[in-house]
């Protein structure tokens, strides 16, 4: 899945403040993490579907993990379903952050292919710990 020793994270986020927190949390976890950023689910799918050669030319790679903010304008459950429709992306863990705090919503996200759905952590320490746990030892 990877073409280098770097761990790759695809972030789907349109909020500059939360994006800043995510990027800082990831950089504090390890400098060997490549971060690609898109603002919507359709952009995420477009990036994933790029030809491998084109990805390498643009210094992007197929992500080891996708972290997405669930918001109707950014990333929605249909986006999880669309990514999972491609078998080559079936092993990429997709973790969703949301402000919905709904068990029904979380269950639907898992049913459609997300690996986990979390209430949006609002402190830097909570976010860093959650991202570190999601990445496991792979990014250390």
Task: Record keyword descriptors for this entry.
single chain; 140 residues; alpha/beta; Rossmann fold; 5-stranded parallel β-sheet; 41% helix
CATH-level-4 superfamily name: Response regulator
CATH topology: Rossmann fold
The count of DSSP E runs of length 2 or more, i.e. the number of strands, is: 5
| Element pattern in H and E | EHEHHEHEHEH
Q: Could you say which structural class the secondary elements and strand pairing correspond to?
A: alpha/beta
Oligomer: single chain
Let me know the largest β-sheet: 5 strands, parallel
**Which percent range fits the helix content?**
40-55%
Q: Which shape, going by the Cα principal axes?
A: globular
How many structural domains? 1
Order of adjacent strands in the largest pleated sheet? 2-1-3-4-5
Radius of gyration: 14 Å
CATH architecture: 3-Layer(aba) Sandwich
- Strand-residue proportion: 15-25%
Poorly predicted spans: none
Q: What gap, in angstroms, lies between the N and C termini? A: 18 Å
User: Overall mean pLDDT score?
Assistant: 83
Q: Your description of this structure?
A:
- Helix 1 crosses helix 6 and helix 2 packs parallel to helix 4.
- A five-stranded parallel sheet has the order 2-1-3-4-5, with helices on both faces.
- It has a single domain, classed as Response regulator (Rossmann fold, 3-Layer(aba) Sandwich), CATH 3.40.50.2300.
- The mean pLDDT is 83.
- With 140 residues, it is an alpha/beta fold.
- Helices cover 41% and strands 19% of the residues.
- Helix 1 links the parallel strand 1 and strand 2.
- The two termini are 18 Å apart.
């Amino acid at each position: 899945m990877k073409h280098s020793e770097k761990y790759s994270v695809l972030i789907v986020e349109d909020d500059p403040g939360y994006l800043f927190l995510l990027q800082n949390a990831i950089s504090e976890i390890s400098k060997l993490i490549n971060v690609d950023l898109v603002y919507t689910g359709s952009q995420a799918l477009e990036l994933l579907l790029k030809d491998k050669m084109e990805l390498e030319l643009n210094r992007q790679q197929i992500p080891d993990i996708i972290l997405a903010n669930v918001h109707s304008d950014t990333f929605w459950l249909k986006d999880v379903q669309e990514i999972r429709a491609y078998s080559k992306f079936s092993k990429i863990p997709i973790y969703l952050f949301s402000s919905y705090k709904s068990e029904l919503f979380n269950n639907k996200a898992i049913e459609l292919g997300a690996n986990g759905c979390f209430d949006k952590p609002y402190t830097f320490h909570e976010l860093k710990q959650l991202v570190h746990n999601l990445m496991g030892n792979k990014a250390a």
